[in-house]
Prior knowledge:
The protein is mostly helical. The chain has a domain at 1-36. It has helices spanning 2-38, 41-58. It is a multi-pass membrane protein.
Amino acid sequence: MFKKKIFKTIFKYAIPNVISMWIFTLYTMIDGVFISRFVGSTALAGVNLALPLINFIFQFL
């Protein structure tokens, strides 16, 4: 009984985090498609260079 509550609690808090990671990944992929089509490959390279910094900042939000 005790283990079931722990699993349920972990599952309850993990699902929103997983969904937010999927949304952020989808946002990044769509952003890359739009930038590469409408701005160019140099801009896409710049965005990809800045992405680790953006991820580092988002981990604290």
